[in-house]
Structure formats: structure tokens, C-alpha cells
């Protein structure tokens, strides 16, 4: 049975979707059958790998109106599949509010796919609402991208409190898969301080690889390509390749 990771950060613009796409791409290049699950109504993961947002999507899979075989799309990278998202997912958050076992809808939808894929990577919206809660309940481990700035530290504390509550009540098997730094600028003292503080406190929970600021990483999604297909030699690509290998090492 494969392992399911959820990428979570309630702050937007921290490289969460970029990280999910590119780690997934490099896992696939390592021969691991990988499924990306876009669980954000903005659909950035979907368009970031060149897949259209037409129905059926993850919303239809959760609603039971479309089987997985109809929802899953293939990307330009062999072994990397995608369950797309659309704006319909924003309505799902409202529909789930009063339903029983609302936190388990995604978990139930993905359960039949666990044995098919080595890795399932869930990209959640930038919030700690019901959709992100579904992602945390469906996952084996949470991966936390952290931008190197002051407010990121405050956000990390809140996120870890949420993870702890999920572990106590909804998903006792959930682990902290790791924290990794994104958009790192070695020229700033603040970035260095954030890395030092987080690494000192969380120690081996922090990945060794740091993702730097890199314009090629920002350009790749507009072409519908993971960075390994857009510019495999840039510093961003090399960094995500190393990070993906660390994910493999940790299991």
C-alpha cells in the first residue's frame, strides 16, 4: 500500500502547490507511481501540470457521481497522474458543513486508490477549513512548506496545533512528514534567522534541502509543466530533485 502526503499551509503564496507538483514529478521520474490530488478550488495544481479543469473532477469523485477511472488524468510525465479540481470544490465546503462524518469524505474517495499508487500527494487550499481538514484526515503524513519570513513562524505554530487536534480526534496515525523551506534568499538575515530557529527547534523534522527563490520555478506553471520538463538544469529543479529524494529516504 502506498503512502499519502498532504501539503498544508494556511498562508498563501508559500510554494505549496509548486512543491507538491515538483516533488510528485521527481517521485515519478524515480519510478514511483504517483497521484497528484488537487483539493483546492483554484485548480492551480491542475493547470500547473497541463491538465484541463473540465468535469469530472475531485468533486465528482467525492460525490460518487464519477468513478476514479473517469476522473484521473495523465500528465506529460510517465507515472504521474492527476485528479483535477474545479470551482465546484468551493461549493463542496459549504455542502459538507452539516453532513455527518464530513471530515472523512476525501479519505473514503481515495481509499480504493491506495494500493494502485506508491505515493498520493494532496494539495490543499491556503486555509485551515473543512477541505484542509479532509486532507489531513486522508493522509499518512503532512508536509509543511515554510517561507523564510517572520509571519511564517506564527503560522507554523497554529498549523501544528491543528495537526495535533486532528491526531487526537480524527486521524491518530497522522505524522509530521517534515518541514521544508521555500523561497529562500541567502542574502537576507531574516531568512537565515528563520532557518536557524526552525531547525534548532524541530531538528530532524526539517528537511536538509532548501528551495531557493528561482524565477524558472515561477515560470513553469504558466507553461503547464513541472520544473523538470521546463528547465531541468536550473537551481530550482536541482533543489526539488534533492528534496524528492529526501522524501523517498524518509519513506
From TrEMBL:
Coiled coil: none annotated. InterPro entries: AAA_dom, DNA_Partitioning_ATPase, P-loop_NTPase. Residues 3-176 form the AAA domain. It comes from the Bacteria. This is AAA family ATPase.
Amino acid at each position: 500500500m502506498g503512502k499519502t502526503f498532504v501539503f498544508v499551509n494556511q498562508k498563501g503564496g508559500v510554494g505549496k502547490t509548486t512543491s507538491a507538483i515538483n516533488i510528485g514529478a521527481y517521485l515519478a521520474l524515480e519510478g514511483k507511481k504517483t497521484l497528484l490530488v488537487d483539493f483546492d478550488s483554484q485548480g492551480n495544481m491542475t493547470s500547473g501540470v497541463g491538465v484541463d479543469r473540465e468535469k469530472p473532477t475531485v468533486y465528482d469523485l467525492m460525490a460518487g457521481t464519477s468513478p476514479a477511472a473517469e476522473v484521473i488524468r495523465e500528465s506529460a510525465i510517465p507515472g504521474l497522474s492527476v485528479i483535477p479540481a474545479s470551482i465546484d470544490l468551493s461549493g463542496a465546503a459549504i455542502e459538507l458543513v452539516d453532513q455527518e462524518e464530513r471530515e472523512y469524505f476525501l479519505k473514503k474517495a481515495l481509499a480504493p486508490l491506495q494500493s494502485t499508487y506508491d505515493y498520493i500527494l494532496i494539495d490543499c487550499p491556503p486555509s485551515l477549513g473543512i477541505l484542509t481538514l479532509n486532507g489531513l484526515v486522508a493522509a499518512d503524513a503532512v508536509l509543511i512548506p515554510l517561507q523564510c519570513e517572520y509571519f511564517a513562524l506564527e503560522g507554523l505554530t497554529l498549523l501544528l496545533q491543528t495537526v495535533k487536534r486532528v491526531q487526537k480526534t480524527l486521524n491518530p496515525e497522522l505524522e509530521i512528514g517534515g518541514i521544508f523551506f521555500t523561497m529562500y534568499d541567502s542574502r537576507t538575515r531574516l531568512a537565515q534567522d528563520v532557518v536557524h530557529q526552525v531547525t534548532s527547534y524541530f531538528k530532524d523534522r526539517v528537511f536538509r534541502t532548501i528551495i531557493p527563490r528561482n524565477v524558472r520555478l515561477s515560470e513553469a506553471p504558466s507553461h503547464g509543466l513541472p520544473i523538470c520538463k521546463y528547465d531541468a538544469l536550473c537551481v530550482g529543479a536541482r533543489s526539488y530533485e534533492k528534496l524528492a529524494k529526501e522524501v523517498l529516504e524518509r519513506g
